[in-house]
Amino acid sequence: MSDESTPPPVMTRDAFDQGMARAMEDVSVPAGLIARLQAEVSSRPMPSAEEARQQTGRTRWSRRFLLGGCAAIAMFTAWSWFAPNAAIVTATDVQRLSGLDASVLTPAAPETRRVLPVGWQFVRGLELADRLVVASDDTLNAQMLPLSYQADRRSSRVTGLLLPLHESEWAAPIMAGPFSAAEVQYTTTGTWVVWREGTTVFVLMLRGDAATLERLQRAAANRPNLT
Amino acid sequence: MVDGIPLPTMDALIEQHSTLLYRYAYRLTGNSHEAEDLTQQAFLLAQQRGHQLRDIQAARSWLLTIVRNAFLKSKRHRGGRSLDTIEEPQVAEEPWNSPIDREQLQLALLDLSEEFRSPLVLFYFEDFSYQQIAEHMAVPIGTIMSRLSRAKAFLKKRLTEVVEAAELPRHTQHSPAPLPRAALTHG
Lengths: 227, 187
Hints:
Chain A has 227 residues and is α+β, with helices and mostly antiparallel strands. Chain A has 2 domains: 1-82, no CATH class; 85-221, no CATH class. Chain A has helices spanning 15-25, 33-43, 49-56, 63-82, 91-98, 210-221; strands at residues 106-107, 126-128, 133-136, 141-149, 158-166, 185-186, 191-197, 200-206. In chain A, strands 1, 2, 3, 4, 5, 6, 7 and 8 form an 8-stranded antiparallel sheet that branches. Residues 52-62 and 78-86 of chain A have low confidence and may be disordered. The chains are: A alpha+beta (227), B mainly alpha (187). Chains A and B meet through helix 1, helix 2, helix 3, strand 1 and strand 4 of A and helix 1, helix 2, helix 5, helix 6 and helix 7 of B.
């Protein structure tokens, strides 16, 4: 872990931080809380394996089948990526999705792979989450990558969501072209663009104005060429 | 095949983590009954979904995530101020030398939206790192650092105002004249 990602220990922080740490933990715990919790838990029946599967709606894989299942998972992922009956995403869906707060969405399974536009790891000021989040309802199941962007030190950091799709999942035909040339469009909470790289369509929704999104486009176009 | 978490382990989890979970839930809700309710929900869910916990060492983070998700699903978190659209408050960087009142802190916390409140609470609880908070909230680490910076500046400003308001009468008001003795008696 880098030094930047690790805050200083509480007792070496300044007086305000130390006071905050003390006050934050100064919460009276009700008498008998532990006993009540233990009694409540012990009064509930333990779920059987079958019940556990039904509750989660998923089959649980044991470790010894994991390696053997990887190939099947990869095939399934490829199939689902190209599945002809996948939900079609429209501009109206983008309006809905753009209003979502990534911090309240369910994290996707850790093994879900990130699909990134070319070179985005190297765009200055752009922070990409390690894990996708899922937004789903009756018509849509969108797996999106939370991100944030700060154009420069004087600018506010804005948040956003990147939605990668197979081209067959995007409602309208779209010509392949770079992110930097995509036309900025507007949502009720900010701006968005859509572009295609190969067979992947990317939708970027940003909680920022057009000028900020255009700066991100320029930053992506001017990223260091590390190839 | 492991089903739920066995009871002895659940008991141990409760003994080890219930205080932290309760305090976290209290700081999120500001209400002792709701905090206990959320804590109980978390352990009941943990019992049902114990098979999802592959590493008992990760229990603390896992349980905190359950508490937060239960809080978000309860819709108790609606409201509060989002600082995304507010400029960072300008606070004079003077050494802080006043005790922080836990109730005033709670009022200030509840004035923040959950996306700013949670990182703050986790930051001051048990030295969570930025990376741990980012993973807990499933947002980039830069976003967490930005939110923490803004939320801390906001809290500092609010608590400074509270301290100044408390000190104001002492500095600016004269002592009230003593009441006539008759006013202190009934009848």
